[in-house]
Design a protein that fits this description.
Rossmann fold, six-stranded mixed beta sheet, 13 helices, 15 strands
Length: 376
């Protein structure tokens, strides 16, 4: 058969076009929001590391959805742990038409930001623990860990029933996270027959608690519950030691970091307690393997919620696969009905977006390390 030059050129054009079509990729934008600067940056960077690790793996695997290869991209924003900055970040992510949002970290940021995501129909997976986050009723919102009602219940019961504390005082930093957790702790103390003799508050920017602690010293507390982060909790325990206050501090997941121990100067951190939503990493189904590759990739230890953020990226990918679509409106129903075995555990959500399986781990600083003392 004789081919003309035009036939050859046309054939080459068609083949080239088919090749380009076959190589076409669907870009999936995963919006991310957490504090990446300031005193809470170590939490946010840890969260981002978890997402990055998942995205790198997903892109190597090369998912195909709706007949096209999918490439995941992270659209990362620094919300500064500030509600005002958080809503600005949320609007930026909405304007960039992200396919999902992984974050935020702080309840005070997550609660107002979630309204914007809901209005845009974008699924959001957060570790914010204040119950109000999901009480808003947004069907696009999901929580990756247990909420403050659960954490507060476990901590309050432990303080009264296990530590046998008769004199308990409470201090919070007035954030949605700190105040919310402190409220739930106080409620649980009373439910278990205990008494909170004093309730004080500070801010999430304060590092000098001398005045408050001097006043509380007269109460001779056995337990001081602090609702807030490690950047304030650590100087608080140092100042307690200087003032001769022997009470044990109890707090939530934001105290459970190596930085708390380091900032407290080691010795002052000994004996204090924290509670974290989820099982210890070495007891999570994929925890040890995740921890190993995290250390290999980032040359550091997991700070707190990197495994949950890693799971969040995979949860979105799994829902998209089940729905055979990357469009939020189409894969959202699949996410609501998900049953997925993640690194941190089996993920299923109730009708409100709460996780159905949410253990709580209580830790105590022993010999310079956070050590598991109970899993509830």
């Amino acid at each position: 058969m004789k081919h003309t030059a035009s036939t050859v050129i046309t054939s080459a054009f068609v083949l080239g076009t088919l090749s380009l079509v076959s190589q076409a990729e669907t870009i999936v934008k995963l919006g991310f929001g957490s504090p990446l600067t300031g005193p809470q940056a170590h939490y946010g960077k840890d969260n981002l590391n978890g997402v990055q690790l998942a995205v790198e793996e997903l892109n190597v695997k090369g998912l195909t959805i709706a007949g096209q290869k999918v490439k995941f991209q992270i659209v990362s924003e620094d919300d500064q742990a500030d509600p005002r900055a958080g809503t600005q970040v949320a609007q930026k992510l909405v304007d960039q038409k992200v396919n999902a949002v992984l974050g935020h970290f702080n309840s005070g940021v997550t609660i107002p930001a979630s309204k914007l995501y809901s209005e845009a129909g974008i699924p959001e997976l957060a570790v914010a623990t204040n119950p109000q986050y999901l009480k808003q009723g947004f069907k696009s919102a999901f929580r990756l860990v247990g909420n403050d009602a659960l954490l507060g219940k476990v901590l309050g019961e432990y303080a009264v029933k296990t530590l046998k504390a008769k004199n308990i005082v409470v201090v919070d930093d007035r954030t949605a996270y700190g105040q919310g957790l402190a409220d739930e702790f106080e409620k649980a103390v009373k439910t278990n027959g205990g008494t909170v003799s004093r309730r004080e508050f500070t801010t999430d920017k304060s590092t000098d608690f001398t005045s408050i602690l001097t006043s509380l010293k007269a109460n001779k507390p056995e337990v001081l519950f602090y609702g807030g982060a490690d950047a304030q909790g650590a100087p608080m325990v140092k100042q307690m030691q200087s003032l001769g206050i022997s009470a044990k501090i109890m707090g939530g997941d934001m105290l459970n970091t190596d930085q708390f121990i380091e900032l407290a100067g080691g010795k002052a951190a000994e004996g204090h307690f924290s509670a974290v939503s989820g099982a210890p990493i070495d007891r999570q189904p994929g925890g040890p393997a995740f921890e190993k590759k995290y250390k290999q990739r980032y040359k550091q230890d997991v700070v707190l919620f990197a495994p949950q953020f890693y799971d969040a990226a995979y949860l979105v990918a799994e829902a998209m696969k089940k729905a055979n679509s990357v469009e939020p409106a189409k894969y959202l129903p699949a996410l609501q009905k998900i049953n997925y075995a993640g690194v941190t555990g089996q993920f299923q959500f109730d009708n409100n977006g709460e996780p159905k399986n949410a253990p709580v781990t209580i830790y105590q600083v022993k010999n310079g390390k956070w050590t598991v003392v109970a899993v509830k």
